[in-house]
Specification:
By secondary structure, the protein is an alpha/beta fold. The protein contains five helices and six strands, in the order βαββααββαβα. A six-stranded mixed beta sheet has the order 2-3-1-4-5-6. Strand 2 and strand 3 form a beta hairpin. The structure holds guanosine-5'-triphosphate (GTP) and magnesium ion. The site of magnesium ion has 4 residues, from helix 1.
Length: 156
C-alpha cells in the first residue's frame, strides 16, 4: 500500500477552515467547497469535519491519517464548541501540531481555541495562529510544516 508519509493530514470540526487553509498553503485561490469525502493532494489529506464530529466516523479519521507525516488539528477561534476528545492526538504515533484559524475575525476567541487544542493533547508550544484570508501566520506555519515534512519529502 502506498504510504502517506509525504502528506500532511488536516483534522478538525466542520467549517473550522481546513480546506481554506490547505488552499492558502498550496497558494491556490480560496474557493469554498464543503469537503464531502477524504481528499488527497500531493501534499495533504483533507478530511470532512464529520470525521471528528461524529463518533461513527472518528476511527476512520484516525485510520486514514495515521501514516501521514504530520497531523494538523485545526480549531476555529469563532467556534465555541469542542468536539475533540481529551488527548485525541496521542492516538497518533506521528508528530501533531495545532492551528487556530480565522484570527482575522474580531469576534474570535484565540485563547479558547488554544485551550481546546491543549485539551486535545497538543503541546502549547506547537500551536500556531493563522488567517487564511489575510495570510497572517501562514509563513511561520509553512516553515514549521517544512521542518517536519522535508525529511519525508526529500526521501526517494
Ligand atoms: N474569516 C475567515 N473565514 C475563514 C477563514 N478560513 C476559512 N474561513 C471560512 O470558513 C468556512 C469554512 O471553511 P472550510 O475551509 O470549508 O472549512 P472545513 O474545515 O474544510 O469544513 P468541512 O469541509 O466542512 O469539514 C468558509 O466559509 C470559509 O470561507 C479565515 O481565515 N478567516
Ligand atoms: Mg473542508
Amino acid at each position: 500500500m502506498a504510504s502517506n508519509r509525504k502528506r500532511v493530514a488536516l483534522i478538525g470540526k466542520i467549517g473550522s477552515g481546513k480546506t481554506t487553509l490547505m488552499q492558502r498553503l498550496s497558494q491556490e485561490e480560496l474557493i469554498y467547497a464543503k469537503t464531502q469525502m477524504i481528499s488527497y493532494t500531493d501534499h495533504f489529506i483533507d478530511t470532512p469535519g464529520e470525521f471528528i464530529e461524529l463518533p461513527f466516523f472518528a476511527r476512520q479519521a484516525i485510520n486514514v491519517t495515521m501514516d501521514a507525516g504530520l497531523v494538523i488539528l485545526v480549531n476555529s477561534c469563532i467556534d465555541p464548541q469542542n468536539s475533540v476528545s481529551p488527548n485525541f492526538v496521542h492516538t497518533y504515533n506521528i508528530p501533531s501540531i495545532g492551528v487556530v484559524t480565522k484570527i482575522d475575525r474580531e469576534d474570535g476567541n484565540i485563547k479558547r481555541s488554544r485551550n481546546l487544542l491543549v485539551y486535545a493533547g497538543i503541546h502549547p508550544k506547537h500551536i500556531y495562529e493563522v488567517s487564511a484570508y489575510t495570510g497572517e501566520g501562514i509563513e511561520e506555519l509553512q516553515k514549521v510544516i517544512h521542518h517536519y515534512m522535508d525529511p519525508h519529502r526529500n526521501k526517494k
